[in-house]
Every structure is written in structure tokens, then in C-alpha cells.
Protein: Gamma-glutamyl phosphate reductase
Amino acid sequence: MATTAASVTDTCLRAQAAARELAAVPSTVKDAALEAIAAALVDRTPEILDANARDMEAGREAGLTTALLDRLQLTEARIAAIAGQVRDIAALADPVGEVVGGERLPNGLDLTKVRVPLGVVAVVYEARPNVTIDAAALCLKSGNAIVLRGSSSAARSNAVLATIAGEAATAVGVPDGAISLVAGGGREELAELATQTGVVDLIIPRGGEGLKNALKGVATVPVIFAASGNCHVYVDATADLDAALAIVLNAKTQRPGVCNAAETLLVHADAAPAFLPRALAALRDAGVELRVDGRTRTLAGAAVAADLLDAADEDWDTEFLELTLAVGVVDSVAEAVAHINRHGSGHSEAIVTGDVAAARLFERAVDAACVYVNASTRFTDGGEFGMGAEIGNSTQKLHARGPIGLRELCTTKYVVRGDGHVRS
Amino acid sequence: MATTAASVTDTCLRAQAAARELAAVPSTVKDAALEAIAAALVDRTPEILDANARDMEAGREAGLTTALLDRLQLTEARIAAIAGQVRDIAALADPVGEVVGGERLPNGLDLTKVRVPLGVVAVVYEARPNVTIDAAALCLKSGNAIVLRGSSSAARSNAVLATIAGEAATAVGVPDGAISLVAGGGREELAELATQTGVVDLIIPRGGEGLKNALKGVATVPVIFAASGNCHVYVDATADLDAALAIVLNAKTQRPGVCNAAETLLVHADAAPAFLPRALAALRDAGVELRVDGRTRTLAGAAVAADLLDAADEDWDTEFLELTLAVGVVDSVAEAVAHINRHGSGHSEAIVTGDVAAARLFERAVDAACVYVNASTRFTDGGEFGMGAEIGNSTQKLHARGPIGLRELCTTKYVVRGDGHVRS
Structure:
């Protein structure tokens, strides 16, 4: 059952005790719990909608923006979709117990490296109440106890969702305390959660820069920060220009507010005269604001000239997250790579090329989580990568780089079996 | 060539530039560089001994302990041994480029997850000058640029060693700046190094608690702290008592000052009457100070009674790192597991048992990097595990758990190849 009255520390200690039991709970029980959660969400929809209506009302009184209210709002259809995602997670392979390596050592010891849960994962998130269930389902499937800390604006919705999930899970044998929500959305609770060294094994923040900075200042337990994405599409001299145009349009416009959307287009000087007039017109027609360097402006052609803005230095470093694109011309793959390694955030970077050597250089030299050859940056996503759901996307290099799925919510353990072996 | 005059920041920026080139340098060149380093160490032994003699002299004047002076001292034989280790590292498989996963996605995209270097690894270490070469060789083999920061007491030795390694490596095609030593062993240089966000990808401290705490206070770049080890041997009811005795003696006495030595012996009550008198006498005869609980004292027998001390509460949490052992009696495997999970540091834990169910419970429920069944904890070591050399041992759960070898000095990158794929 979800805890809403205990202190943050007590909640975390209960989660740790639950985690130690949960690590040994077999997949059948975890999957039955996920199925029970999905069913309970549907069965108890009126209860959820009632709590959500009170959050919405308070949100309107507090003057939340329409966008925030939309994130906060649950509907029967949205709840059904959340339940569907829980069933999708149940259908994934269990990462726990997967043997990831091992051998018989020369002395006869049998060494096995096996995947095991991290233990207690804390997820700190902002308005969207669906994260309560998504994150709980991913942690449960990967054998981790979860401590949730949502925002105060969704407190009633989150409390009901966490209670429903906790009750459904414990009813089929998941240890009590495996799914908890800490009460209080304040900075003090955040600091208490972020300093549970030896109890909380990982904190994953899902929210904006303010939340990240608040955590950076106080956290003593490990944090994986969700990525920002300053992503590039580079159109090489030998690119198929139709493919290049489709990829640029997709990477920029298909969903501009997400971290794997493109923010800068780089074009090789040899392709620029044919490509730029066409591409810039298409982008403009798609509603994209274009901030261009001098060479781009020269080659853009008269049809779009009036619609171009001059790129400022900071535009090359900006994650616009809206229909704005910086555009520049380069003289080589190497120059494109250097630009990307200097300005990019190491998220997702694409080359469009017909040249094997260019592709090979780009793949190797670009320092990013995901490098694309002749494909849109928009594919960086746990679902697209066949990992099922994801709890975020990492641009850090340690532990997890790229989508954070079930495996990335685990650590490993060496099991070494002998016959009385001692070291000489 | 090693940098000893530039600022820490400049050194790190040069290392980053070198790292980007080094990531694409093939194994043949890296192995040739390692061979060249090994040869140069032998060829230039007089130069190394001369610098080391000056460090030793300064150390004696500064009143360093005999133990510290021994760590600091290099001899012709020690230099030859260091060169041998470099050749051993050259003989290991290159982790860079290893494909660790991948598949053809349903939409036809080819997804490949490939191992790539971290980039710039900083190693901060205390007196032992051999770390200069060991760490440089491991980083070079794994395609990482290294920034070394040793202690001031070994400054002359470290400078010569880093210069020799850097010169030998660049002579065969390793980028300049791949092996650097920062001058100045002060806290300011440490803080400057530990805050190179976006430039230094990982700091590995090799030293005592003082060094760790100094880093914890200032580091903004990721740190993997070398482990402390409060390791246990649990002798189960069904243990082969001869094997149990051999394992306990080995785990405690074979090299008591290291992190994988045992600090606590737990004995099942059913085995205790037969095992304890014999084991305690053998441990005492091996020079081990015994700190025991009440039940152990009762069962120990007259022959050792006079040699037993009462265990204090803090003894169960202490990494003695010397010939001292806490000893307790438990009533079940579950009680042993609970004790270990409460008091252990998650390093290396052993059960001695003849019972399959007990072994299985212990393997699963103990939360540690390495769990042993019928073997000594002393095997936790990159060399013993077939990983070749190691740069330390991790008890943290993220990124690397257990020995940190060449693979753990890497991250991964997704390479995604398509035919103009866009996301719908």
C-alpha cells in the first residue's frame, strides 16, 4: 500500500526492506501484479477521476497554464492507455537473473555475472500523474522498490494512483512497501530523499532544469539526469537529397518539443546549392523559424531570403524544443563532426550520406549516445529500440547511455562457485 | 609527452582533444605503444631510479614512515615488473569496438550497441609511483586519454614515468596529450581537476579515506570510489569443516590488508560446537585477534578461552585490514544474510555449505558485488576473474560493480543505420 503519512526516511527504509524481498520474487508474480494493477486502474477509474478533478480544480484556482492543466488531466481514455502500458511492460522479458557473462576460471571456479535489481529507485517528477504508474511498473518489473515523489499540484491524483498500484501488487504477493509515494512536494522532502545514502540506490528526476538543479545541489545518492538534446542532422556532399529533406523535416517537425528532435542542420558546401533552397522553403512552409549562418544565407535563394534570421552564437548551443532550427554550411564531414562534438549534448546525431567512408567517420568520431546514418534522430526511444518502455534517456556516459529501460534499472552481481577454493 | 607545466584545465583540454583521436586508433597501434612503453621503462631505468632516489631522500627528510617509503621506492626489479604488467595489458583483448548488442528493428533499421572509450579518465593516487604506469596502460588500451595526479612525495618519480610513457606512446602514433600528469599535488589542483565538467569523463581515486573525502566534497564530474571491504565468511550447518577452516584462514590471513580479506566469521549454531574450537585455535595460532559474541565464547572451548576478546557493536561494521576477526554465531542462513546485508559493505561475501538450498538463498539474497559459494573472498580481483588487470574494485551499483577492468573503462554508443528512415 502506498505510504503517504510516514516520513521520507521511514518510507525509504520500508522500501529497502521490500526491495530485498522483491529481488527474489519470480517473474510470474511480478507479471501477475502488473496485470492486477492494470485491472485495478480500470476498475477504480471513478476514484482516480474524482481525485484528479480536485487537482484540476486546485490547479485552475492556482492559475496553472492550459498546457500544465492538460498534462495534469486524466480521462477515462487516458487511464485505459496507462493500464495498457502496464500490460505492455508485463509482456517484456524480465531482466533479473539474466546471465550477462561468465566462464570457468583456470582454477576451476565457476564465475557467473548475473543481472540483479538496483534495490530502491526514487523517481522525482513533475505534473504528469501517468508517471506514477509508468515508473512504478518499470521498477516492479525490474525487481526494484520505488519511492515516488510527485509535484504538489498532482498530489491527490498521485496518491490514489500509488495506492491502487500498491494494493493491487501486494494482493498478489509483492512485498508491502515496494511502491510508495512520499507526501509533501517541498524542497525539504526532496533533500531528505536525495540524501538517503545506503538506502536509495538511484534517483531519476523527470522534469525540467529547475528540478535538476535542485537535485544537483543536494543529492548524495546517485542520480541519472534525463537528457537534454541539442541534436544535429548533417547532410553530406553525397546525400540523397530527397531522403535528406525527409529526414530533416521529420527530425525537426514531427514532434519539436522532445529531446530527440533536431535543433541544427549542417549542410556540406557541395550539397548546399541544390539542397538549401529546397530544404529551407520546405521547412519554412512547415512553420519552422530559420536562423542561418552567412554561407547559408548566400546559398538559400531568393524564395526564402526574406524568411531567414541571422544565427547568433548561442543558437548553435540551444535546445529550442520548438519550431526553430539553426542552419549552417560546412566544408567536410570532419568539420561537421567537430561542430557537433563542440556544440552537441551527446544525445542523437544524424548523417545523411551516400559515402561509406563518410558514414564510417561520422559513426566513430561523433561522441554521442546515438549516431544515425540515413535515419531521423527521432528514433532514439526505448520503445523504438525494442527495449519496451523507458524511464528516460541518458546522455551521461556512466551506467546507462541512451534510453533507460529495464536492464538499465539493474546492476550486476558476480556469483562464484567453488569446491573449497582458496587463493594461493 | 607528459605535461607538467600547463594548468590543470589546459592539460584536461589537451587530453580531451587527444581522446577524440585516440578513440579511433586501432589496437595494433595501441599495443605497439604499450610495447614501446615497456621497452622504454627498461631502457631508461637509470633515469627513473635517479628521480626516485631524490623522492626517497626528500621522503626520509620529511619523516615518511618505513611503510610509505617502501611504497615509494622503485628498484630495477620493480621497474621490470611494471614493464611486464604493461606487456600483460597489451596482450588483453581490446574492449573498444566490441559489439555488445543489437538487432534489426521491425522497421528495418539496423541497431548496433558498441563499446567505446569514456574519453578522459583522471586517476588520483597516493604514494605508489607504479600506479602512474599501470593506470596509463589500462587507459591507453581502453582508448582513453589519462590525466594523472599523484602525490607530491612521488612527484619526481611520477614525472619521469609519465614522460617516458608519453614519449614512447606518441613516437608510435598515439596522439600527443593522451598521457598527462598534472603538476602540483595540492587541494587546489585536485578541485580544479574534479570540476572539469564536460571535459573529464571519470575520476578514479586510488588512495585512502582522506583522499575520498576530499574528492566527495568538491567533485562535479563522475567519480568511482574504490571499495572498502567489510567481507564475511559464513559457515553453514552443513559445511565441510575442513574446507570451511581453509577458507576462513585464507580469507583472513593470506593478505589481511586488502579489501577482499574477511573481517567477520559467522557460524551456524549447528556447526559451531564442532567448528569453533578448532577454527578459533587455528586462527589464534595464525596470529589473529578474535573479537567474539557471547555464544561464540560459550562454544569456543577451554583451549582458546583466554585469547578471546568481547566484540563491541562497532566491530561488526569495521574493516580491520589487519589480523583481527569478529566472530558470531547465527541460527540460520537467513540470519547470516540479514547480518551481512546490515553490516557488510557489499564487496565480497562467502558461504561454506553442503546444502543446495542454503547456497541458492545466500547467492540471491546477499546484496554484494561478489558472492562466493565454497570459495575464499580473496578471489575478488580483476586478474583472478580473467579480466586481466584492474584499476580498482567497485562496491557501487551503477556502471561498474566488482573489479574495474578495461570494459568498465568504456561506455557504449548506439549506431543506427537506415535507408532514409523517418519516424511516423
User: Anything to note?
Assistant: The CA atoms of residues 29 and 135 of chain A lie 18 Å apart.
